[in-house]
């Protein structure tokens, strides 16, 4: 086992650090200057069927659901097709409507998650085109869907999903680029994203320079009972996923929240003790996040702000927040960058709190029962 971990102490740590490489393999042979080529969607005019869909439905559980949520704004923007998000178990509980005119995307690292597979059976029965996005070649998901895209992130052993998450987002971005490739009005935007994808692995490598800082942050949070993470837009999913990582491995209560909902309830929790991470990297929501930070500071909130490099004084002019500066990339790719400091934080917090990193209590890598 130690040989497989190489120079790392845990699989989670190794898998976090593998991301520049796993993202490269996810994109290998698929991202060209001229556009994106996805072999799995090429046959039988699947791309055309997806373009004609009345709706795209993204279905998954846990981290895989969060990856799909991260991609949703960009998929809607580039395809012009509305996206509905479905947690697999909730879709089944509600027996929610799925139509023949829908394309349902099933996102799953293992391709064996029982809830996701049951939701797949349900969508097949209802006549939707079913597309699988999975890391596991030959998995039940990849066999039962009509078509799909493998994420090619390499084997993930730690129960906490890390490198699969970032590769899932990149696959969804590639799907959006491929589906939207017939639209002239978005050509310039598509080209900018394509060059952003090419530089993404080196930008991810940059983020590892924050490792010591995240360890220090973890030691300052070691005795906290709870941690809130506020995000919005592209980074609402980052807030949910960051909180899920902290919860599942560091065994600390943590909630990811939509920053736009802050004043509708969560604001009551704010005091000088509760640590709150606010994601405020540059995108269309930046000024709204600046005002969220001001509102939290005026309630004496204990803030940790994630911002784009060079933006420390723009997000926290008073200097009273702890600031994490990350490289700025294309807005829709920023979630891939922003989750990494939070993965590192969850990892260090777990080690410092003395919990099992790779096998958190009560959890299994693949949940094959309902
Ligand atoms: C991720 O850290 C979790 N262990 C969990 O939420 C996981 O993503 C979920 O169970 C779905 O698994 P899948 O991607 O293999 O379908």
TrEMBL record:
Top-rank EC class of the record's enzyme: transferase
Top-rank taxon, per record: Eukaryota
GO biological process, one term: fructose 6-phosphate metabolic process
EC number of this enzyme: 2.6.1.16
Domain SIS: 46-185, 217-360
Associated pathway: Nucleotide-sugar biosynthesis; UDP-N-acetyl-alpha-D-glucosamine biosynthesis; alpha-D-glucosamine 6-phosphate from D-fructose 6-phosphate: step 1/1
Organism annotation: Oryza rufipogon (Brownbeard rice)
Full protein name: glutamine--fructose-6-phosphate transaminase (isomerizing)
Keyword 4Fe-4S: no
Chain ranges passing through the membrane: none
Portion of the parent chain present: 308 to 677 of 677
Any one Gene Ontology molecular-function term assigned to this protein's record: carbohydrate derivative binding
Record field: catalytic activity: D-fructose 6-phosphate + L-glutamine = D-glucosamine 6-phosphate + L-glutamate
Annotated keywords: Aminotransferase, Glutamine amidotransferase, Repeat, Transferase
């Amino acid at each position: 086992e130690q040989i497989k971990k190489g120079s790392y102490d845990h699989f989670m740590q190794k898998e976090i650090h593998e991301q520049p490489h796993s993202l490269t393999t996810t994109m290998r042979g698929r991202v060209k200057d001229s556009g994106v080529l996805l072999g799995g969607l090429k046959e039988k005019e699947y791309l055309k069927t997806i373009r004609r869909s009345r709706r795209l439905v993204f279905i998954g559980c846990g981290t895989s659901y969060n990856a799909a949520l991260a991609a949703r704004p960009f998929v809607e923007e580039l395809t012009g097709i509305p996206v509905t998000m479905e947690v697999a178990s909730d879709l089944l509980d509600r027996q929610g409507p799925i139509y023949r005119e829908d394309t349902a995307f099933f996102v799953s690292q293992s391709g064996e998650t029982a809830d996701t597979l049951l939701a797949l059976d349900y969508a097949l029965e209802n006549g939707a085109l079913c597309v699988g996005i999975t890391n596991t070649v030959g998995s039940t998901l990849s066999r039962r869907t009509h078509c799909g895209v493998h994420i090619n992130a390499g084997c993930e052993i730690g129960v906490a999903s890390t490198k699969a998450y970032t590769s899932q987002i990149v696959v969804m971005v590639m799907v959006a680029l491929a589906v939207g490739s017939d639209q002239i009005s978005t050509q310039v935007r598509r080209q900018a994203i394509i060059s952003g994808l090419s530089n993404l692995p080196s930008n991810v490598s940059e983020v590892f320079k924050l490792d010591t800082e995240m360890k220090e942050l973890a030691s300052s949070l070691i005795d906290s009972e709870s941690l809130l993470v506020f995000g919005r837009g592209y980074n609402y999913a980052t807030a949910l996923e960051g909180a899920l990582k902290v919860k599942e491995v560091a065994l600390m209560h943590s909630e990811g929240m939509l920053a736009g909902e802050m004043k509708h309830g969560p604001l009551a929790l704010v005091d000088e003790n509760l640590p709150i991470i606010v994601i405020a990297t540059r995108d269309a929501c930046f000024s709204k996040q600046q005002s969220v930070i001001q509102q939290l500071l005026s309630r004496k909130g204990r803030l940790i702000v994630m911002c784009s490099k060079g933006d420390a004084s723009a997000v926290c002019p008073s200097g009273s927040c702890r600031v994490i500066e990350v490289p700025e990339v294309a807005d829709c790719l920023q979630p891939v960058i922003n989750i990494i400091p939070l993965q590192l934080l969850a990892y260090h917090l777990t080690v410092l709190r003395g919990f099992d990193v790779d096998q958190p209590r009560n959890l299994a890598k693949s949940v094959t029962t309902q």
